[in-house]
Each structure stands twice: as C-alpha cells, then as structure tokens.
Write a structure and sequence with these properties.
By secondary structure, the chain is α/β, with parallel strands linked by helices. It is built from 10 helices and 7 strands. Keywords: Signal.
Length: 296
Amino acid sequence: MLPALSMGLTLAVLVFGVAAAQPAPSARVRTAPGVPIGTAALPSANTLAVLTPSPMPRPTRPSWTGWVTPPTRPPSTGRVTPPQPARQEPVTADPVTAAVMTGMAHRPGRWVALTLDDGPHPRYTPQVLALLRQYRVRATFCLIGTQVRAHPELVRQIVADGHWLCNHTMTHDDRLRRRPDDRVQYEIGAAKRLIEQVAPGARVRYFRAPGGNWSPRLTTAAAAQEMQPLGWSVDPRDWERGRSAASIVRQVHRQLAPGSVILLHDGGGNRAATVAALRVLIPQLLRAGYSFGPPA
C-alpha cells in the first residue's frame, strides 16, 4: 500500500512541476519550425530530478503510555451493617374492644350463639320463636325499650321459651356514645328496668350498643348494672334493604367458625328474608354438628 501511495505522490509532483514551468498566460511561446507547440515547455531531465520528492516515511503507531488507572473504592472494613428495622411503638390493648364479648372462647367444640336485635316485633318475633321451638334451639334477644313497652306479651313469651335477654337501649340511638352522661344512663337503665318489670324474675344478662357504636362510657355503664357488653363476629347484614334469604345464608356460612356470635334481626323493619334464612340456617348448622348456646 505504501509504494502505491509514494508513486501517486510522485506523479502529482510531476504534474505540478509541469504546470509551474508553463509560461504566464500573457506570454507567447515561439517554437522552431517542425517542433510541436508545447514541446519547448517540457522540463528537462535535470528539472525532473530536482522535482522528484524523496520517499515518504512509514507512519508509526503512538507508543503505549501505560495502564489506565481504574476507579478506586473505599477500603472495606470487613463488616456488613445489617438494615435497621423501623421503630415500632408498643401495642396497647383497646379497653373497649377488650370489654366487648364477640365470641364463645370459653366453650370448646362447635358452639354458636344466635342473637336477634331490635324486637320484639309483632309479626316477625312470633315466627322466629316458632322456628326456635321447632328445632329446640335457644337464642339471645336484644330488646329495645319502646318495643318492650308496646309488646310486653312477646317479652314474656321469649322468657317462657328459655331464651336469654339483652338490653338494646330504650330508643336505639345510634349516637348514644356521644350523648351526655344523663342520657346514657337513661337509655341503658330505663330499658333494663322496663324489661324486668314486664317479665318479673327475668335476668338481663347482656347489653348491646346500638349499631355496635361502643365507647368506654357505654361499657362502663353496662358493667355497673351487671350486664356483659355483647358484640358479634358474624354479620350477614340482613338489615340492608333488598337483602335476600339466600345471600344471608351465604354470608353466615362464609364468616362462621366455632364460637361465633351471629347477628340477625327480628325487628326494625321487614324481616321476612331473615325468617326465611333461619328456616335454612338452623337445620344446616345442626346437621354440621353445631350447638346453640348463650354468649360466654
């Protein structure tokens, strides 16, 4: 490749020399007769020798200057610092949650507590009582004071059938936990006294806050009157409008476990779906080996 490059450069120099030897455009060249025009302008051999360049030197690669210094890392101490866990605050038990009974933890085996709220109702409570009597099952009725006053004979029938009683306040005020102390005392105390009045000798063992809206004042007031605050662990939401018997049954089975407290309603609205669901649920639970008892 280099000889070819040298030859090309030599020819370029020769052409350049010939062009340089040409007279200026304004000069007129005279030649002897018989000599072609331009022959006199060719360079001589001596001129060619002078214009011939020396061979070009062979290109050389640049010399290696040394190694490239890699980036340095900080020296290792030989110890790996483990990630520090996030600081956790101590967990304290909620006194309200601890006071409210939601299961039958003290009963081994397949026990369940059936509770019915917002009665007694003149249409649906008798139907529920008939079903319980048919299957020899006992339940807990959470009674509202105004309903007790309106239907005292149903309270006496509940007691006569051996069921358990629960105080559900006088008027079912969902915001009772925000009311003044005198209102709290009236709602709980007046309902308890009225139940005991219409059913002499009956014991009101439990208290359930309206809507499950608890507060320390409510649990304290219930305990002061020797009533156990009662919650639930299974809520099929049978009180919702448009709820079908099939959906109530399905939700109970989905949430059910041994020791559950089931929340249903025999008052407070149209409870036809609840009664229909009980016709299915009670025999199903009995066939599954469940026994019905009081929350404890």
